[in-house]
Each structure stands twice: as C-alpha cells, then as structure tokens.
Amino acid sequence: MKPNIHHTLLIYFLLISNFGFSQDKKDTLNLKSSLLFPQFTEGTVIFKDGSSNRAMLNYDTSLDEMQFIGPKNENLAFAEPEKISMVIISNRQFINYNNHFVEILVDGNVTLCLKVCQKRFAEKVGAYGGTSPSSSLTTYSSIRLSDGFNTKLSTNEVIKIKTEFLFYLLQDDRMKQIFNLNDLIRHFSSNKELLKKEIERQHTKFDTIDSMKKIINWINANGIVN
C-alpha cells in the first residue's frame, strides 16, 4: 500500500516545527504593524528538496523574518531558511535570496523583486515634545531590537519607524539590487538612452512600487536587454 503523501508531509512538518525552527517568541513588543500581511495567512513553504508544507505565515519586515504559527500558537521564525526555496502567501511569491525573502512583483525575462524593510529605533523627545513631522512615531515601554536584545525606554523616548523599499532585478539567474533610477539605466547600458526617455515619459518614481512595476513591464514588453 502506498503511503498517504499528505499524512507523511504533515508528520514531517510537525517534526521540523519541533526541532528545526527557532523557538523565540515575539511577545516583548507588539509587532503587528511591522508584519507585511494584516494577519497570519495560510500559505505554502516549498523546500529545496522538492517537498512542501502548508502553514499560517507572515513576514516581519522589522526583524527580517519569515514567520509561522507554531503548535502552541506562538510566532516562530525559520531556523534554517537556507533549506527553503519559495514561500507563497495569498498568491504572492517570495523567493529565497541569500537566506532572505524577496517578493516577486513582475515575472518575465527581467524579474522585479522587492524586500520591504522597517527600521525601528529609539529617539529622544525634545524639550518641547518636538519630533520629526515625517516620522511615524509610537510610544512603547520597551523595544526588541533586531539583534535580539531588549531595551527599556525612558519616558522621554519614542520609537521612530522608517520603511524602505529595496528593489532587485533577477535576470539570467543572477540577482542584483538596484539602488536608484540611474542604477537601473546603467544596468541596461546598451539601451540606456531609450530607457531614459521612457522613464522620463512615465515620470517613474523609484520609491513607488506601481511605478517600478510599470517600467519593468515596459522593459519586458519591448525586449530591452543589457
């Protein structure tokens, strides 16, 4: 009799959940605002050995961790991300790049990938309570820093939050980070004048996801190469 594949994968997942993942709870600080999805969502983890498992997943942009709900309803991080090839959450695909997960925004000859990073750090409040108007600020009694240490905040400190978009191009099985629009143009050096004109025509903005998706779609549609 052939073994039940679903049952076998379930047992495999329970075993690696107990022994192959970090048991570090994220309960020191409420990190809901740093999660990429509003809530943990059922998704698929695809391993490099070809196996896959279903789990409740989310990505913490502050800690740079793909997380899942463990058997005791706690938030756990993958201890061996190097064994994972891809994670799919709500039809959104995240591929493993140097043991970090980047989301595929545009798939084609030139694939556009994105990593969302949220940086949090303590900042002193001025004598008159002044803070930067461009910052999103939330007050906490403590903060769990990305290196794992807990720091108590004084009454005159706040958490400053900064969100960054990191864009990557995947082409010919090579991944490269793009730092600005000039860097994008240099990547396609043989068509730089044509690309520069299209960027100007589209009013492409490097810090806008939809704008970057639009220009990469144009690159693919027009067969632009290096």
Characterize this entry briefly.
The protein is 20% helix and 39% strand.
What general outline do the C-alpha atoms trace?
globular
How many beta-strand segments? 14
Strand content: 35-45%
Going by helix content, strand content and strand pairing, the class is alpha+beta
Radius of gyration: 21 Å
Averaged pLDDT: 79
The stretches of 5 or more residues where confidence is low (pLDDT under 50) are 1-32, 132-150
Secondary structure: elements and pairs:
Elements: H1 5-19, E1 21-22, E2 41-47, E3 52-60, E4 65-69, E5 75-78, E6 84-89, E7 92-97, E8 100-106, E9 111-124, E10 136-138, E11 142-144, E12 150-152, E13 157-171, E14 174-178, H2 181-187, H3 192-202, H4 209-221
Antiparallel strand pairs: 1-5, 2-3, 2-6, 3-4, 4-5, 6-7, 7-8, 8-9, 9-13, 10-13, 11-12, 13-14
Task: Supply database-style keywords.
226 residues; 4 helices; two-stranded antiparallel ribbon; 14 strands; single chain; alpha+beta; disordered N terminus; 39% strand; 12-stranded antiparallel sheet
